[in-house]
């Protein structure tokens, strides 16, 4: 039952991480706190991949809810091993979701924001790769939205960090679930044979 309690604590940890991913992704739609940019489609294309909403957010609620409900599942199945196998499958979904969020956020961060420059609306740092991140003086190339580079770098970095934590939590549960699903029945068989 200790492993069920551990899984529940991982489920509780995933909920605020997933919620923060959703909020960070939503904020990317409103740079400078204005709705005009989303209406005029003046946003980076990567925002429309919904990496924080879908990958780091909604997809992560599947393992979170599964981990939280494992006690009920173990009671109805009659065995903790069955519940652990289900948690491994849910954690795999979490791995895919958090991996997707991490990958798209990293690509978006490397390509930089879509903004209005002296040459019109474009992605001025797309060809530079990550160099622009270390050359703050070049950020002034983006005239509108105001402080869009800081906005994107901050929110995308937050999503990178959150998705990394989500990924690690899912890996921990996969390892814990597999160990409990495989080893626990073997331990019970050995105990039974010793007592017999």
TrEMBL record:
It is a multi-pass membrane protein. GO terms for cellular component: membrane. Keywords: Membrane, Transmembrane, Transmembrane helix. InterPro entries: L6_membrane. Its main location: membrane. It is found in: Membrane. It comes from the Eukaryota. The chain crosses the membrane at residues 12-31, 46-70, 82-110, 155-179. Belongs to the L6 tetraspanin family. PANTHER family: TRANSMEMBRANE 4 L6 FAMILY MEMBER 1 (PTHR14198:SF18), TRANSMEMBRANE 4 L6 FAMILY MEMBER 1-RELATED (PTHR14198). This is Transmembrane 4 L six family member 18. The lineage of its organism: Eukaryota, Metazoa, Chordata, Craniata, Vertebrata.
């Amino acid at each position: 039952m200790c492993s069920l309690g551990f899984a529940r604590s991982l489920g509780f940890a995933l909920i605020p991480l997933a919620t923060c991913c959703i909020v960070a992704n939503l904020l990317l739609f409103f740079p400078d706190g204005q709705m005009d940019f989303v209406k005029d489609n003046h946003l980076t294309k990567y925002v429309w991949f919904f990496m924080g909403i879908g990958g780091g957010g909604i997809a992560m609620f599947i393992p979170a809810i599964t981990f939280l409900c494992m006690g009920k599942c173990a009671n109805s199945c009659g065995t903790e091993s069955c519940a652990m196998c289900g948690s491994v499958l849910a954690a795999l979904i979490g791995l895919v979701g958090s991996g997707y969020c991490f990958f798209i956020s990293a690509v978006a961060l490397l390509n930089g924001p879509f903004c209005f420059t002296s040459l019109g609306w474009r992605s001025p740092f797309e060809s530079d790769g990550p160099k622009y991140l270390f050359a703050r003086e070049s950020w002034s190339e983006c005239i509108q939205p105001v402080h869009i580079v800081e906005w994107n770098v901050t929110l995308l970095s937050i999503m990178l960090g959150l998705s990394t934590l989500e990924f690690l939590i899912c890996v921990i549960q996969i390892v814990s679930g597999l160990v409990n699903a495989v080893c626990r029945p073997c331990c019970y068989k050995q105990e039974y044979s010793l007592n017999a």
